[in-house]
Specification:
By secondary structure, the chain is α/β, with parallel strands linked by helices. It is built from 7 helices and 16 strands. It holds the Pfam family AA_kinase.
Length: about 280
């Protein structure tokens, strides 16, 4: 399982070359991607302001009302996925683009109304179309893998409890957690999460301060070193490790061979201690 960040841009082709190498040696590969950065660029083009929620604990997340969800889905499924799939096809990889909603693969429960800060004002938000993953059905990706395909999957997820009169049914879910839950459901041997940093750093300004290995049982002791999205990635990696994924790595997607380098030990590796 390989999670690539939408912010990698041109570096995505290097990850695709590594995926081709893994497929050539007989590995089954699933690719997961997000698309927040592409959705932000698209929102700017469309003149739609980007908005964020800040919860009481200080956690900041995307405010995904219906208009924002439209942009997010278009960014992920219309802007980011097609070039990723076509690059893999160009390299001879039989890639198939999917969303979590396809076949009811990933279902989620909508976040309930919450008292949060939006645009500097505290209020109750009731129209946020975000959620938490509730279940993963791995049948569709397993079927594609067995037939020799490489599934390229992203949010959104499907909300089976959506009110049909509201026009809803899709939910924005965190792409890193999406990848981790899929990896667990597929009983993957590897989960490689690529981003635009070397891994977890003790000093964000010093690439040489990389934390090479973290016991997932001791994850809480390392969370203070992470900020922003890295904190989510670190928690997600720890959850996947504890759930049984044998090899979990937070890798740097900017290198010449990012996936193979991560599998060879580059980045931050989550390890499960001996009982």
């Amino acid at each position: 399982m390989i999670k690539v960040g939408g912010s990698l841009g041109a570096d995505m082709s290097r990850a695709c070359a590594d995926i081709r190498a893994l497929v050539d040696r007989g590995d089954s590969v699933v690719v997961v991607h997000g698309g927040g950065a592409e959705a932000d660029r698209l929102a700017d083009e469309l003149g739609r302001p980007k908005r964020y929620l800040t919860a009481s604990g200080g956690r900041r997340s995307r405010y995904t009302d219906a208009a924002a969800l439209d942009v997010l889905v278009l960014g992920m499924l219309g802007r980011l996925k097609p070039p990723l799939v076509t690059e893999l096809l160009r390299l001879g990889v039989r890639a198939v683009g999917l969303s979590g909603a396809d076949g009811g693969m990933v279902t989620a429960r909508r976040t309930p109304p919450a008292n949060v800060v939006v645009d500097g004002v505290r209020r109750v938000v009731r129209d946020d179309l975000s959620g938490r993953i509730s279940a993963v059905d791995a049948h569709l990706p397993r079927t594609l893998l067995a037939a020799g395909y490489v599934p390229v999957i992203s949010p959104p997820a499907y909300d089976p409890e959506a009110d049909p009169e509201s026009g809803a049914g899709l939910l924005n879910v965190d792409a890193d957690r999406f990848a981790a839950r899929l990896a667990v459901a597929l009983e993957a041997d590897w989960l490689v999460i690529l981003s635009n940093v070397p891994g977890l750093l003790r000093d964000p300004g010093d690439p040489g301060s990389l934390v090479a290995e973290i016991p997932c049982e001791d994850l809480a002791g390392y969370l203070d070193l992470a900020g922003g999205r890295m904190k989510v990635k670190l928690r997600t990696a720890g959850e996947a490790c504890l759930a049984g994924v044998p090899h979990v790595v937070l890798g740097d997607g900017r290198g010449p061979s990012p996936v193979l380098a991560a599998r060879a030990g580059a980045g931050t590796t989550l390890v499960k201690g001996v009982p």
